[in-house]
Amino acid sequence: MKQLLRLEESAQFIMGILLYFLGIYLALPAVPLLGVILFAHAAMDRIFGYGTKCNKGFKYTHLGK
User: I need a surface site. Which of 14, 17, 56, 63 has the fewest CB within 10 A?
Assistant: First the structure.
């Protein structure tokens, strides 16, 4: 069974979604774009296996070493 994302690991996704909807609600065209960019950046990090960094060093992530 796959491990569910913890809050720390999914914070960038949540912030991207919140920025997107906040920008739509406030009718600020640049803010939804920033939300999409943040969401896509976080998704690409996960796809390529970079994950959330640990304090031990850059190569240590929540996905393993």
Answer: 56
